[in-house]
Design goal:
Strand content: 25-35%
Shape: elongated
Distance between the termini: 37 Å
Largest sheet: 4 strands, antiparallel
Number of strands: 7
Radius of gyration: 23 Å
Number of helices: 5
Length: 165
């Protein structure tokens, strides 16, 4: 792969809460027939308890799968001239930011992300459609910010552009 093009993805670690919720919903499904059978005066539901359980299980699994896809379809591509943010599962949106428009790049490393060697890179730009972009839960955030800064300076020099506040 060309080293001038770098592709980064958001970590699935950001889905921890969604996956836990999906597990809880799925477990409710597994225990629904037993719960319904112990409820007094619910004879009508006991015949449908397996159907109700199946609905919970399908919702839990579908929610986990959808959460996985949303994060998996989110990419950040850094070329020599632009940063391209691609996202969306069914309808894909591609948002480029010209590197000479980037004003600043900041790094934050919350404790949970830092434990796994991840962090967030926030890009501030003069782009009208995307003035702020967060590359969330990416590997080597300090290196990414440094690469962006170097490429921004190269593009500004090449284009003869200066940033004014």
């Amino acid at each position: 792969m060309d080293k001038s093009i770098m592709i980064y993805r958001t970590s699935q670690l950001t889905n921890t809460g969604n996956f836990l919720l999906a597990i809880i919903i799925t477990l409710i499904g597994f225990f629904t027939p037993e719960i319904i059978s112990k409820l007094p005066h619910i004879d009508q539901l006991s015949g449908n308890s397996k159907n109700i359980a199946l609905v919970f299980i399908l919702i839990g699994i579908s929610y986990a799968f959808w959460s996985f896809l949303v994060v998996q379809c989110k990419t950040y591509q850094i070329t020599l001239e632009e940063l391209i943010y691609t996202h969306g599962v069914i309808n894909q949106d591609i948002d480029p930011i010209e590197l000479y428009r980037v004003k600043d790049a900041g790094v934050s490393r919350p404790i949970l992300l830092r434990i796994f060697g991840l962090g967030n890179v926030t890009i501030y730009s003069s782009d009208k459609t995307l003035p702020q972009l967060e590359l969330s839960a990416v590997k080597s955030p300090k290196e990414i910010a440094a690469i962006i800064r170097l490429r921004v300076e190269k593009m500004r020099t090449a284009k003869g552009v200066r940033e004014f506040d």
